[in-house]
Amino acid sequence: MFTQITIIGMGHIGSSLARGISQMGLCDRLIAVDADEDVCNAVDTLGLADTATTNAVEGVQGSDLVILCIPVGSIGKVVASIAPFLMPKAILTDVSSVKQSVVNAVLPLLPESVSFVPAHPIAGTEHSGPESGFAELFKDRWCILTPSPDTNIRAVEAITKLWEAFDAKIEIMDPAHHDLVFGITSHLPHLIAYTIVGTATELEDDIQSEVIKFAASGFRGFTRIAASDPTMWRDVFLNNREAVLESLQRFSEDLSAMQKAIRRGDGDYLFNKFTETRKIRREIMKLGPEGYPNPQRMAIDSDPCDD
Amino acid sequence: MFTQITIIGMGHIGSSLARGISQMGLCDRLIAVDADEDVCNAVDTLGLADTATTNAVEGVQGSDLVILCIPVGSIGKVVASIAPFLMPKAILTDVSSVKQSVVNAVLPLLPESVSFVPAHPIAGTEHSGPESGFAELFKDRWCILTPSPDTNIRAVEAITKLWEAFDAKIEIMDPAHHDLVFGITSHLPHLIAYTIVGTATELEDDIQSEVIKFAASGFRGFTRIAASDPTMWRDVFLNNREAVLESLQRFSEDLSAMQKAIRRGDGDYLFNKFTETRKIRREIMKLGPEGYPNPQRMAIDSDPCDD
After folding, report:
1. What is the model's pLDDT at position A217?
2. What is the rounded average pLDDT for all residues in chain B?
3. Cα distance between the two ends of chain B
4. Which candidate in A73, B1, B134, B159 could, as Cys together with B117 as Cys, close a disulfide (CB 3.0–4.6 Å)?
5. Which class is domain B2-173?
6. Where are the domains of chain B?
7. In chain A, what residues touch B122 (CB-CB under 8 Å)?
C-alpha cells in the first residue's frame, strides 16, 4: 500500500496503528518517531517498527506517508520542523480529536506537492503509552476525514484505504462541523467527567474514601473517562475552545433549570426531562455499538468506551 | 429462612429478588404485589411468585417479611395503608436509593412489634419492569443497611442473611451519611447525565442526528445512565434534596473554574486537574469492580454499571 510509513508519536493510538500496519504488511518499512527516548526504547523492545528515533526530521525522510499521533498542541511545531524534509507527493495525516485548528496550523506550512488528509478515528481507551496499543482498536469504529475541497483525491483515497484496512468506517466532514459535533458528543462529556471526579478529590478524606469504595452506578464510569491522557485533553479544550464553551453554556443553563426544579420540588419537570432522555438512548441502541447498524455486532451490548 | 415473603413493587429490583428467593427457596410462600394489573399478569405469566395481587393490604397478611421495591415517593402512602395489617414481629425492609426520608416516613407508621431494616442494594441496570430482572443482579455488589440504633438485632441479622444469600456484601451506615455519600457517587452523576443528554435533545435536528450517530466516547455512556427509570429518579432527587443540591453546588463551582481556564487558555490549570483525577481511578481499580478486593473478580474489567 505504501513504501515507507513514519508514525510520529508512539502512544496508545500510534502504537495501535504500528501494530496493525506491521501485521497487515501495509508498507515495506515502518519508522517510529517519538520525542521521548524511553518510548523509542519501548518501541524497540516491543518490536513495533523497523526503526525508532527521537529525530523527526530524519524519521520522515523517504516516507510516502507520515502519520501524526501527537497531542494537538504539538502539531504546529512538529510540522514546521519536518515540512521541508517531506518527500514530494508524500501524504501527511493525523489522528487528532480537533480538526479546524489542526488544518489552520498545518496547511500554511506544507510544500505544494504534499497532501494533508486530516483524520479522527473515534476510538481509544483511557490507557496511554506504546504498551497499551492493539491493532483491533479501530475495528468497526468511525474514522472521520476532514480534507479541504482542493485536496488531491488520490491522497484522500489512500487514507480511506488505510483506515478501511483497519475495518474502520469512513465519514467525510467539514472540519468546523466536526468540531461542533464532537464538542458535544465527546469533549463536553470529558470535561464534565473530569470536573465531577475533581469535585470528589476535594472532599473531606473520610467521605472521599467512601466515594471510592461505593463508586458503582454512575461515578465509576465517570472516573474511567477522567483517567484519559491529560496532555491530549488539555490540548483538545484549548483548541476547540469556542465549540466547547458554547455547548458548556447550554449545559449550564439546563443544569440550573434542573437545580431550580429540585429546590422547588417540581417533580413534573424532572419526570418529563428524564422521560425525554430515554428516546435518545433508544435511537443509539438501534444504531448498535458502532453508531451504525451492523448485524454481526447488534447482539453485543458491550461498549469499548465503557469499562 | 422465612415462612411467607411479600414483595411490593415487581419492577427490575423486585422481580430480581423474587427470582432469587424462589430459586434459593428462601420461603415457603412468595406473594407479589403491584399496583399495575399488567405487571401482576406478567408476574403470573413469568411464574415469579405463588400469588400476584394489586391489593397490598391483602398481600402482606401473614407474611413475616415484607420488601418494599417501589419508588421512594410512594413509600409513605403504601406503608400507611399496610401498617395495621402487618403480622406481629414481621420485618419490613426496602431497597430505596435514599434512606433518611424513608426512615422518617416509615418509622412513625409502624406498630411497635414490627421491625424496619432499611436497605439499599447498589445494583441495577437502566432496564425497568418485571421482565428485566435476574437473580444474579446483586452478586458481589454492596448492600447498605441503615437500621436505627434501637432496631431489633435479630431483624437486622435476618435481612443481612437475606442479602448474603444473594452474594451481596453488607455495610451498616447511618441513613443521613448514606444519603451524603450516594448523593455524590450516584445521584449527582445521574443528574448530570440526564442534563447532558437533555441538552442534546434540544439541539437542532441535523446536529442531533450526528450526535446520535457518533455517540461513542463519553456521551454514549451518559445516555445509558440517562435511560434509567424516570419515576424512581424523580423521587430520589426530591427526597435527597439537600445532599444533591450541596454536591451540585460544589460541582458547579468547579465547572465554572474549568470554563474560565478554557476561556483564558490556562493549560496548566487543566493539565493539573486532569492529572489529579487519574489518582481516584487508580484507587477504584485497585478495589476491583465491586468496590472491595475480590481475587476472583479482579481480572474482570467489565463494569455492570456501564454498557
Report:
1. 60
2. 91
3. 35
4. B159
5. alpha beta
6. 2-173, 177-265
7. 214, 216-217
Query: In which element (H, E) is residue B264 found?
Result: helix B241-264
CA distance A175 to A100: 5
Taking an 8 Å cut-off on Cβ atoms, the answer to whether B247 and A199 are in contact is: yes
- A305/B273 touch (CB, cutoff 8 Å), yes or no: no
B19-69 pLDDT tens trace:
999 999 999 999 999 999 999 999 999 999 999 999 999 999 999 999 999
Nearest to B220 by CA among A108, A41, A290, A146: A290
Q: How far is CA B244 from the centre of its chain?
A: 16
Q: If you search the block for the grid coordinates 447525565, which residue do you land on?
A: B193
Instruction: Read off the pTM.
Output: 0.86
Query: Side chain identity at A104, as an amino acid letter?
Result: N
Nearest Cα residue in chain A from B253: A199
* Segment A279-295 mean pLDDT: 69
Query: Is the pLDDT reported for residue A212 higher than 50?
Result: yes
B215 and A275 within 8 Å at the Cβ level: the answer is no
**Which pLDDT score, from 0 to 100, does residue A299 have?**
29
Residue B80 phi, psi (nearest 5): -60, -35
Residue pair B195/A192 in contact (Cβ under 8 Å)? The answer is: no
**B204 band by pLDDT with thresholds 50, 70 and 90:** confident
Which range among A74-88, A209-223, B227-241, B259-273 shows the weakest confidence by mean pLDDT?
A209-223
- Which CATH code, of 1.10.3660.10, 3.30.565.10, 3.40.50.2020, 3.40.50.1820, is assigned to A177-287? 1.10.3660.10
Number of inter-chain CB pairs under 8 A, A vs B? 327
Who wins on pLDDT, B290 or A58?
A: A58
Residues A91, A64: Cα–Cα separation, whole Å? 6
Q: Do residues A112 and A155 make contact, with C-beta atoms less than 8 angstroms apart?
A: no
d(CA B126, CA B306): 10
Among B221, B252, B280, beta carbon nearest to A200: B280
